[in-house]
Amino acid sequence: MIKSMTGYGSAKGSCQGLAISVELKSVNNRYLDCSVRLPRGFLFAEETVKARVQQHISRGKVDVFVSIDTACSDAVVVKVNPTLAAGYVEAVRRLSEDYGLDGDLSALALSRMPDVLSVEKQDADAEAVSAAIGEITEQALQEYDQMRRREGQKLHDDIADRLCTIEDYVSEVERRSPETVEEYRQRLYRKMSEVLANTALDEQRILLEAGIFADKVAVDEETVRLRSHIAQMRGMLQTGSPIGRKMDFLVQEFNRESNTIGSKCSDGEITKIVIELKSEIEKIREQIQNIE
C-alpha cells in the first residue's frame, strides 16, 4: 500500500518517574529531513529517535517533538546530615541538664529540625531513558503510519481513477488518428498535385510522397507508449515500497508523449483531447508530490 508523506502521530509513556511525550508530524520533501527536539539534558536520545524514524520513513520533512516532565520523578534520595543531627541532640541534652528540663528528643522531632534531612534528585539512567524514548517514538510512529496509509489509500484511488480517464482519452486519440492521417494525406496530395502539375512526376510518385509525409503525423508509437506507462503506474500503485520518485519520473514520460501527440496533430478534435489528457496528467503529478 502506498503511503502519504503527510502524517501525524503521538504517544506517551514513563521511565524512572519521568513523564515522556513524543509527537511527530511530516510534510512533503524530496528527501528525508528529520529534525528532533529534545529538552536540555536529554539530547543523548537524539540518535535513538532518528534511527526509529529512518526505519519507517524514507522521504519527507519530519519534525519530532519530545517533551519530558521531571516534576513527578520519584528518582530521589533522602540524605541525613549526621553532623548537624548530632549537634541538635547535644544541644537538647545540654538544655535538659542546664535548666532541669524533662523530655527526650525523638527521631521524628529530630527529622523536623532545619536541614537535618535533605532530598536530592538522582540523575536518570541515560541508557534506560534513551531506550524508553525510542519505544515511545515507535508507538507514535505506528499511529503516524496508520494515518499515512489512510491518506495513501485516498491518493491511490484518485490516481487509479485518473489513469482510467487517461486511458479513455488515449482510446479516443487512437480512434481519431487514422482519420487525421488520411485527411492530411489527401490535403497534401492535392497541394502537391497542384504544385507539380507541370513536372514529369507521375501520380503514383506523388501519392507515395504524400503517404510518406502523412505517416509522420501518425501517433501510433506515442499511444502505445502511453498505454505502457499506464500499465507501469498501475503496477506501482500495487507495491508497498516507496514509489513517489519513480512515479514522478513516469509522469514526465506521460507529458513527453502527450506533447508529441499535440505537436504532430493539427486536428482540432485531437488537440482538445490532448488538452484534457495533459490536465489529468498534471492532476496526477500534483498527487504524486504527496506520495512517499
Word description of this protein:
With 292 residues, the chain is of the alpha+beta class. The chain folds into 3 domains: 7-72 and 125-148, Ribosomal Protein S5, domain 2 (2-Layer Sandwich), CATH 3.30.230; 76-121, no CATH class; 150-288, no CATH class. The chain is 61% helix and 15% strand. The protein has helices spanning 46-56, 82-99, 107-111, 126-195, 203-215, 220-237, 244-264, 268-288, and strands spanning 7-15, 18-27, 32-37, 60-69, 76-80, 117-121. The strands form 2 sheets. A 4-stranded mixed beta sheet has the order 1-2-4-3, covered by helices on one side. Helix 4 (126-195) packs antiparallel against helix 5 and helix 4 (126-195) packs antiparallel against helix 8. The protein is rod-shaped and about 150 Å long. 24% of the residues are buried.
Total number of beta strands: 6
Task: Give the averaged pLDDT, no decimals.
Answer: 87
Termini separation (Å)? Answer: 11 Å
| Global morphology | rod-shaped
What is Rg?
39 Å
List the domain count as a whole number: 3
Number of helices: 8
Tell me the strand percentage band. Answer: 15-25%
Sketch the major β-sheet: 4 strands, mixed
Helix content: 55-70%
